[in-house]
Amino acid sequence: MSQNAASTNVTKAVIPAAGLGTRFLPATKAMPKEMLPIVDKPAIQYVVEEAVSAGLRDVLVITGRNKGNLSNHFDSVPELESTLANKGDEAKLNKVHEASELADVHFLRQGQPLGLGHAVGRARQHVGDESFAVLLGDDLIDARDPLIDRMIAEHDARGATVIALMEVPQSAIHLYGCAAVERTDDPDVVRVTGLVEKPAAADAPSNLAVIGRYVLRPEIFDILDDLGPGRGGEIQLTDALNHLAEGKGDGPVYGVVFRGRRYDTGDRADWIKANVLLGVDHPEIGDEVGDWVLDFAERLRARRAAEAPEPQHRS
User: Fold this and answer.
1) Of 79, 73, 82, 127, whose CA–CA distance to 101 is shortest?
2) What residues are paired with 180 via a beta bridge?
3) Residues 121, 136, 71, 59, CA torsion sign
């Protein structure tokens, strides 16, 4: 548990995981995208582990249709555990126990797929009148680069809603929510004055993109209740945060600029990259994977060189 967690009033984490995962079809036709493995653990377990490492052991997962495997993963499996125990396979038995004993994980159906803001609003009864963390289920932060701890510390020090931001190329800002900011005396902390959902590059107020980590004050629930549908006809969390950033709430909005390792496991190419990047650092298979990556890179370079068109020479 972090030093920060011992004194904070942020004790609960909410993980929205109700998306359909259409970018991974047909793999996600019958399996939640959050259950796709990163090396040897499903993506959702990495997110729960991140919450626990920040002292947030009370975790609410917002699910949707065909997401039963999520709750099964964090439940005990007596038949499997008995089989492994009888074989004396303590290593695998410990891995099974690790998931079921990781945290107090609760599950709530979103009901209707009305957007991220609607999913977060569904957490109101569980969270109550407390600040809480939100960690998106397909956005992984490397455990070696803690983020939620810093965000909670800023929330406690400033009495603020805190969002995670990341510098991205201007050409990619249209893929994200984008923050208008004022600098502070800390280069990694900014005051957020406005938010725009997926702006054109020419209209973006900065190159700071919103990524899937938030520490929210309970006032967010009343704002979400009063919001109409936004982009895509959904209740957008970005719209609610923009209300707060414009001074329409009881507290300000600050952003923590994250400069560590992040993996977007909702994107096919980034999911493959995450498996490679975490695979080469895995204590059991890292050397084997690393050697293969180096060998494959040589072969790929040679293949692309051979396939490259011949340069045209002027006569």
Assistant:
1) 73
2) 194
3) negative
Collapsing DSSP states into helix, strand and coil, what is residue 207? coil
In whole angstroms, give the CA distance from residue 254 to residue 275. Answer: 32
In terms of DSSP bridges, do strands 58-63 and 177-183 run parallel, antiparallel, or are they unpaired?
unpaired
The predicted pLDDT at position 249 comes to 81
Say what the pTM is.
Answer: 0.89
pLDDT at 2: 45
Tell how strand 161-167 and strand 189-197 pair up. Answer: unpaired
Q: Where are the beta strands (DSSP E) in the chain?
A: 12-16, 37-38, 41-42, 58-63, 104-109, 132-135, 139-141, 161-167, 177-183, 189-197, 208-216, 253-257, 262-264
C-alpha span between 13 and 58 (Å, rounded): 6
Quote the CA–CA distance of 19 and 137 in Å, as a whole number.
9
- Tell me phi and psi for residue 25, to 5 degrees: -60, 145
Cα separation, 208 vs 45, whole angstroms: 27
Amino acid at 50: E
Low-confidence ranges of the chain (pLDDT < 70): 1-8, 313-315
- Other Cβ atoms less than 10 A from the Cβ of 286: the count is 14
Q: What does the alpha-carbon distance between residue 257 and residue 133 come to, in Å, rounded to a whole number?
A: 16
- Residue 3 CA to residue 65 CA, distance in Å, equals 38
Report the pLDDT value the prediction gives residue 315, as an integer from 0 to 100.
Answer: 56
Comparing CA positions, the residue from 141, 140, 135 lying closest to residue 260 is 141
Instruction: Name the phi and psi angles at 136, rounded to 5.
Output: -70, 140
Contact at 8 Å (CB) between 257 and 190?
yes
State residue 140 phi and psi, 5-degree precision.
Answer: -105, 135
Q: How far apart are CA 47 and CA 142, in angstroms?
A: 10
Tokens read off for 59 = 């975790």
